[in-house]
Amino acid sequence: MMARKILQSIFIASIGLPLAFLLLLSFGRRWPYPEIFPKELSLAAWGFLDNSNMISTFFLSLGISFSVALFVTLSAFFISKHIAYSKKRNTFMVLAYIPYLLSPVVMAVIFQYYFILVQLTGTTLGVIIAQFLIAFPFGVIIYLNFWNENLKSIEELSKTLGGNAFQTFVKVLYPLSKNAILLCFFQVFLISWFEYGLTNLIGSGKIKTLTVQVFNFVNEANIFYASFACCLLVIPPMLLMYLNKRFIFFAEKSE
Amino acid sequence: MMENILEIKNLDKTFGKETVLKNINLSLKKNAVVSLLGASGSGKTTLLKIIAGLEHQNNGEIFLNGKEISNIKPQRRNIVYLYQEALLFPHLNAFENVAFGLRLRKTPEKDVKQKVMQMLEYLGMPNHATKMANQLSGGQRQRISFGRAMIIEPSLLLLDEPFGALDSTTRQKMQELFKELAKTMQLSALFVTHDLKEAIVMGDSIGKIMKGHLKQHSDLREFYEDEESGVKKEVEFWKQFIN
Predict the structure, then answer these.
(1) Cis, bond preceding A34 (omega within 30 deg of 0)
(2) Residue B67 near chain A (CB below 8 Å)
(3) Are the C-beta atoms of B110 and A194 separated by less than 8 Å?
């Protein structure tokens, strides 16, 4: 019992302490060696919020990630169905893993030439399309396990009971797939939110997402501003994690 | 003379190079049940799916009440196809499962309540209306599945080994229930099974599919007389224990 409590405390501390330290650093001002904590605290980094660039960076990142997550969630839902029921399901499955084997940044190098040709580099739309191309196969992978023979039979049954394609989707497929849809949206949002290499390359330094901004601060050795940007960076994922826990885990538990 | 509700003429079906059904001819009289016998992989399920509109034949015609239905979508055929598994919608309770077809047809709420409760009582399950699928036994799930199909009064019911997953006692009870329902609700049905006894018990007449060919017998006597039906062999087998 005691050992379990200790292990639980270690687990909570391993997650909570870095976050608490990040928050502390974002209020730091002077941090000379060999001090463990910053010597002075100030609101200077957070005062950066007044700087309209930081707020717009936050909302730009949110907009890009939300768009990518939405497009991937919707398109992968319908396309994965055709892949799952096709005879070449396994071949498509292998192909879906290729962007991850090559890594997004290598894919970005491959895309870049074509993006320059159609003048999409350095644009928000270009970044959204590039991230979509990376995240789409991942969405397909998430959905593939959802489509199975049992679901196919349920769908067919709904049709013979008189349901057209729309009614079957609304009354049968959507209620049964809600968890998979939420899971896909959250996962793709996170992929897009923390994407750096591809965004930096296709965005050509003009599209500054929050993740790109964090790396810029780190490169400038501005640890306090980097911590502040990181605090902004972890808010949406933490909110998503809360929603995920509330709507997915709770729904699964109550079934 | 009773009219045929279903007529299938010269139907063929191939998957790639494999011929699954060849020159199938079948007729089903109104308010009658035809049992379709056949081993696994003989094409029984494919034939039912083609009739339901879930698969398409390569050649041949299907007439329902005298109308050719090959190009009609499954949802417009008024033919319900029931699987071996009850396949209750897991997100709906027993009441809503039975009400499903009525809701698709936008039946007024008052009528839905009345019809569904009437059906549940008929199935002996009025106390299970609020239970979810995972709270029901195999036999209860199958009852709800029947109720869900019959409440929309389909022209034709296609049953694909509906009792295959049940234990022998429940299976026998369900056979009796189906016989009673078929008689009371004047159902027309094709009942697929690989069990010889079940085919005889359930059907007014019997057809047997072997290697993609269907042989339909006009009555049980004719089926018994046919050497290929396997009935005589079955009778001989049991006789040895009597003598």
Answers:
(1) yes
(2) no
(3) no
The kind and range of the H/E element at A114 are: helix A104-117
Distance CA B108, CA B121 (A): 20
**Interface A-B: count of C-beta contacts within 8 A:** 58
Give chain B positions within 8 Å (CB) of A170. Answer: none
Taking the C-alpha atoms of residue B125 and residue A230, their distance in angstroms, rounded to an integer, is 59
The H or E element that residue B217 is part of is strand B213-217
Closest by Cβ to A162, choosing from B82, B91, B105:
B105
In order along chain B (243 residues), what is the average pLDDT of each group of 10 residues?
Answer: 83 90 92 88 90 94 93 93 91 95 94 94 90 91 92 92 82 85 87 87 88 84 76 78 74
Contact B53 A160 (CB under 8 A): yes
Out of A52-66, A158-172, A237-251, B43-57, which region has the weakest mean confidence (pLDDT)? A237-251
Site of tokens 């901004």: A213
ipTM above 0.90, yes or no: no
pLDDT at A2: 84
Looking at A63-72, A97-106, A202-211, B89-98, which range is the least confident one? A97-106
CB neighbours of residue B159 within 10 Å: 26
Q: Touching check for B146 and chain A: CB below 8 Å?
A: no
Does B101 reach chain A within 8 Å, measured CB to CB? Answer: yes
Name the nearest CA neighbour of B32 among B183, B216, B152: B183
Q: Name the range with the highest mean pLDDT among A58-67, A209-218, B35-44, B225-234.
A: A58-67
Q: Name the CATH superfamily housing domain B4-88+155-242.
A: P-loop containing nucleotide triphosphate hydrolases (3.40.50.300)
- Give the pLDDT confidence score for residue A52 in this predicted structure: 60
| Residue B111 C-alpha, separation from nearest chain A C-alpha, in angstroms | 18
How does residue A51 score in pLDDT terms, banded at 50, 70 and 90?
low
* Chain A positions in Cβ-Cβ contact with residue B148 (cut-off 8 Å): 161
Q: Do B101 and B152 touch, CB atoms closer than 8 A?
A: yes
Structure token pair of residue A175? 């209620």
Q: Which positions ≥6 away from A64 have C-beta within 8 Å?
A: A124, A127, A128, A131, A192, A207, A209
Would you call A163 and B91 a contact, using CB atoms and an 8 Å cutoff?
no
> Would the CB atoms of A161 and B103 count as touching at under 8 Å?
no
Selection from A76, A58, A200 nearest residue A130 by Cα: A200
Q: Which residue of B has its CA nearest to A255?
A: B91
The reply to whether B165 touches chain A by the CB within 8 Å rule is no
Q: Which residue of A has its CA nearest to B101?
A: A161
What is the distance in angstroms between the CA of the first residue and the CA of the last residue of chain A?
A: 30
User: What are the residue boundaries of the structural domains of chain B, listed by start?
Assistant: 4-88+155-242
**B66 CA: distance to closest CA in chain A (Å):** 20
Residue A148 has pLDDT above 80, yes or no: yes
| Token pair belonging to B16 | 């790639």
